[in-house]
Specification:
Blueprint lengths: L1 H28 L3 H37 L6
Length: 75
């Protein structure tokens, strides 16, 4: 289960960053202010809604995997 959470976190980070990467060039081509605001909201949704939670999942799972691997758990 821990490895699944770890892989899920990596997939979420990748998906969020790909979404930001695809949305950024489109944002740079827009000249109307309301459309710019919508594009920025989309980028923020990819970043804050997908990439950051994936990073937290990855951080938590890798920390737990390291503790388990080196047997630093209390008896």
């Amino acid at each position: 289960m821990l490895k699944f959470v770890h892989v899920l976190g990596a997939i979420l980070i990748g998906a969020g960053l790909i979404g930001v990467r695809i949305s950024d060039p489109r944002l740079r081509q827009i000249r109307e202010l309301p459309r710019v605001a919508d594009a920025i909201r989309n980028i923020a949704a990819f970043y804050d809604g997908v990439a950051v939670p994936g990073a937290f999942l990855l951080l938590a799972s890798v920390t737990r995997l390291i503790v388990r691997f080196f047997q630093w758990e209390r008896p």
